[in-house]
Design a protein that fits this description.
This protein is mainly β. The chain contains one helix and 15 strands, in the order E-E-E-E-E-E-E-E-E-E-E-E-H-E-E-E.
Length: 208
Amino acid sequence: MKLAWPLVALLVVPLWSAQAELQLSPQYRFEVGSEAGSHIAAQIGDVRMGADVPLAVTGSADVDVTLAVRAVDADGVATVAATFGAMTSELMGRSRDVEPPEPVELRVDRLGRVVGASGGGADVDLFASGGIPVQVVVVLAGIVELPDHPVGVGESWTTEHSQQVPDLGEATVRTTSRLESVDGEVATVVTDIEASFPDFAARNPLQD
């Protein structure tokens, strides 16, 4: 699954020069009351059941997401509420009627690393949302993780870590981001995200 998220004006970009090339050491400066909008448009790429047997399952989900900073502690770690708008989804070629997902609350440090997450409801109903766990997508990819070292335009950085996901357990997340361009105070970052989820059981959507 590949997602591109806009980087908003919460970004602080101290500059320094190395070998006559522009280098950035970006961090987030979270401010209580700040909000950013984004959109998830995701599709199922591959589903496998026991014994690594592939399943011909198709599904998709589209939903708007609002990220709002509710609090910031003395270390700069922000409490960010993720709320969802109306969602459209499709599973096995059929449109699904679904209520907006339950809100998710993230605790995010200045480099965009999620250090805590809660909410999302008691269950993740994959079949109602076209097979796409949109709350999980927000936990893993709602905020771009920034590098812990200076980077120049065109350079990439990779992070890999484990994250507890509400109701699903521990997921291993690998992100590869590239600083695409800088225009004044706006930086454009393109990020590819790969996540491995623990095994879980779910009902068959073709049967009651």
